[in-house]
Amino acid sequence: MILDNVLGMFSTDMGIDLGTANTLVCIRGEGIVLNEPSVVAVKRGTNKVLMNGEAVGNIAKEMLGKTPGSIQAIRPLKDGVIADFEITEAMLRYFMTKVHNRRFGVKPRVVIAVPSGITTVERRAVVSSAERAGARKVWLIEEPKAAAIGAGLPFLEPKGHMIVDVGGGTTEVAVLSLAEPVTYETIRVAGDEMDEAIVQYMKREYNLGVGPRTAENIKIAIGSAFPLDKETTFYVKGRDLQAGLPRGITVTSEEVRQALREPVRAIVNAIKLTLERTEPELAADILDNGMVLVGGGVLLRGLDKVIGQETGLPVTVAEDPLTAVALGTGEVLNQLDRLKDVLESGEDE
Question: What is the pLDDT of residue 340?
């Protein structure tokens, strides 16, 4: 205990939302201090990070789809879990060191948010990666719990609260009561699947090849799940798959909405399935309280309207949906004595 307190004087405890698309770091008492893409650039055939270990995050994302044959830009997490152990460790080490202003030797305590549906082996991989990256102590928290805390829900009460977290790799739907998910559903359909749906639409309808970054730009610019008050267009540049030459076309927001129909439907179905499995008393609470949407995917225009229309429930988008999970991990550190029971893999203080 004494040693832990002494070590705490020289390190900064941090909460991490280790996402498929982005990693956010929240410092106890300071809020979000880092928000960068979960991307690492390495020399092909090795796990050596380029630029003396600096080709991580924003720098690496700029390289996606633009690297020569000797360089590979990797997203080491897939569908919310670690796909490449060594690269994830390198990425975590870089982010943790950056947050600590490049002071080597510091060993923070870390709370990491993980999807509810991941396996025990996958959970151990997250803990091991963080420890090898320099964490002194690692706890895990399920993303719906972190999101509920970050969104300010009174989830410690014996009442039903519903959280829908649409991230990059997964969508998490959970009904929480007394700080625990009573019913939950995790599907590997989220922001990345939306981007892929746009890629496939461009290929199918226009014979135009575009990359995931371009697809994401289209989604952000004109993507929607519900008809817009004023429909709009976007000029898309890519490669003609027949001629092999660069070509540009103009697509409409109606077309992009059509492209996104299947992933949106999958998210709505996951919500309905969770509600069908919810006990009547908790369902009554949700009818009163509605559901809260978090995660970058809920920024898709009109997604809240579609969900509300399909379920008949009140739907609220969190004040800052992108940071809700990360803020939740930070709040756990702020109130560790009170909230430690919501954590996994923690040791007694």
Answer: 85
List the beta bridge partners of residue 180.
177
Q: What is the mean pLDDT of residues 115-137?
A: 87
In the sheet where 109-114 sits, what is the strand order? 31-37, 22-27, 14-18, 109-114, 137-142
Helical residues (DSSP H) of 56-111, grouped into ranges: 58-61, 85-99
> What's the chain's length in residues?
349
Beta strands per DSSP E along the chain? 14-18, 22-27, 31-37, 40-43, 71-74, 77-78, 81-82, 109-114, 137-142, 161-166, 171-177, 180-187, 208-209, 233-240, 246-252, 291-294, 315-317
Q: Global pTM?
A: 0.88
Residue 199 has a pLDDT of 98
Domains, the chain, ordered by start: 2-37+78-146+324-342 (3.30.420.40), 39-74 (no CATH), 153-189+262-317 (3.30.420.40), 191-261 (3.90.640.10)
The chain-wide mean pLDDT, for the chain, equals 89
Tens-digit pLDDT profile for residues 54-111: 889 988 888 877 778 788 888 888 877 888 888 888 898 888 888 876 555 568 899 9
Neighbour count for residue 196 (Cβ, 10 Å):
15
CA angle (257 as vertex; 255, 259 as ends), nearest 5 = 70
